[in-house]
Amino acid sequence: MPMRGVNLCLAFNMETIYDHANFQFGENEKIGVVGVNGAGKTTLFKVILKEQELDSGNIIISKKKRIGYLPQEIVMENKELTVFDYLMSARPIEELNSKLENLYIKVASIIDEKEQKRLLRQIGNTQELLEYYDCYNCENILFELISNMNIDSELLDMKLVDLSGGQKSKIAFAHLLYSKPEILLLDEPTNHLDTDTRSFVINYLKNYHGMVLTISHDINFLDEVTNKIMYIDKMTHQMITYEGNYTTFMKKLEKEKEHKERLIEKQEKEEAQLREFILQYSNSSGKRKRIAQSREKLLVKKQKEKVTRDEVRKKVRFNIKPLREGSKIPVKVNNISFHYPDSKKLYDNLSFLINNKERFLIVGENGVGKSTLLKLLVGQLLPDEGNIWFGSKTDIAYYAQEQELLDLNKSVLENVDRSGYSEKELRTLLGSFLFFGDEVFKKVNVLSPGERARIALCKVMLQKGNLLLLDEPTNHLDPETQKIIGENFRSYDGSIILVSHNPSFVESIGIDRMLILPSGKITNYSKETLEYYYHLNKKD
Q: By C-alpha distance, which of 94, 20, 112, 4 is closest to 57?
């Protein structure tokens, strides 16, 4: 087997993550890694990459496979590089050619036979690598990838530092695919991807000659790509592998639960009958007493061997309410213009207003300034021209896409600390977001992105705003939690301005109107229009 996990054990601060967990995967399998937030999915990737040590156990990878990793949170080194140079750097062909040239020079001047053989081996290994990276055809491969991933020529000249969150995700993904790894580790790979690029990525992965492990809350993506699901059970700390895609896995899991429940009910019935017999005949004498004693031993044995019900997993409880009624017009944007240094204008004379209790969606390609507009509304950025007016009773609560409002070096409790709330009240509220007991004292930097997303939602709830600015609020959240917050936002008694790449979530909260960037056009909401603009996103 190309990859095996043997008796994996890991705990953080007395919290068990894996308890003698095992798995094995074949050469070209496409595996979906699923489980609730905090079960240890991203941690598994870090263990595979040797960024996290196990307490005991091993992950064995046959031969020396090249591993490529796409994290949820994209961090790019050397941000002054252009996008094109960054993509080119994924295959170290220039460095290998330079190394090969130096080796040839060295070997020509060496007389020692042993040293010559060593250098010739290095030359052979370097040539093999150049062939692996297809050095004579690599630029054509890169340009084909750029075209298939809808990366605009203007984007290629931009510096990494100037990219939006969505653009960074796409460029990092292209860089990973071009690097030609033999094992792909993908953590929420469809976040920020437009429809066309997503379709290309799905087809690419389905036909990819190598192993793919992907963590995703995108059920359609998992169904399309995977042929095996590994479920990390947070209750038992085990890894259970199922053949088939996500939908098949869910059906099998449901059948297992039904079978287990029938078995438990049968056991309970048998135990009740045994207890009744024992109670009836325990004070008898002779044969009946001996039978009662025999039944008592049988009951003890059954109790030791019996199957027990799984602990019911708690769900997020999210109930956001504004502190007061908002203004009739919460916000007006008056002829604003804005650009980042050394970049073209994102908006020029952009104007709009929203009404009280309206649901207002911002759509457009990645990089046109959707997140930037929310930062202007919240005051993190200032417009070059024009102004933004707020109603006298407008109270803003802001959810940032990249969770930059969280202090990673502080605890969960410190991050939600707010005047007017006692520690007991805050801890009760954090319990609604599945942070119990000493978990509230964990530093945020050790949490998974999904757990951080729950803290960010908790902070929004505490602010009790009547105007919510939400930037990709469903990223990193499991489907069940997405549904819960969608239902809550739908019944929320205030105004919402939303940026989201998640059409089903957008549908769930009931949008009234849409702002289309960069044109600044405002239309009434329709599902067809939403799908059209998501499909149109092919240049970012």
A: 20
* DSSP calls for 306-365: ---PPPPPP--------SSPPPSS-EEEEEEEE--TTS--SEEEEEEEE-TT-EEEEE--
**C-alpha 9 chain-centroid distance:** 23
Burial of 327 (0-12, 13-18, 19+ CB in 10 A): middle
Q: What is the pLDDT of residue 323?
A: 92
CATH superfamily of 331-536: P-loop containing nucleotide triphosphate hydrolases (3.40.50.300)
User: Residue 540: its pLDDT value, please?
Assistant: 38
Q: What is the DSSP string of 45-70?
A: HHHHTTSS--SEEEEEESS---EEEE
User: Cis peptide leading into 2, omega within 30 of 0?
Assistant: no
CA distance 314 to 321: 22
Q: Is the pTM of this model over 0.85?
A: no
> Can you give the pLDDT at residue 538?
37
pLDDT of residue 284: 78
pLDDT for 480-536, tens place per residue?
888 889 888 999 999 999 998 777 888 889 999 999 998 899 999 877 766 655 555
Closest by alpha carbon to 192, among 529, 500, 505?
500
3-state secondary structure of 516: strand
Paired residues of 233 in beta bridges: 238
Query: Measuring CA to CA, how many Å separate 464 from each of 176, 282, 321, 412?
Result: 41, 63, 6, 19
Q: Give, in order, the Cα–Cα distances in Å from 288 to each of 271, 282, 285.
A: 18, 8, 6
Predicted local confidence at residue 219, as pLDDT = 86
Q: Which residue has the higher pLDDT, 206 or 63?
A: 206
**Cα 452 from Cα 439, distance rounded (Å):** 13
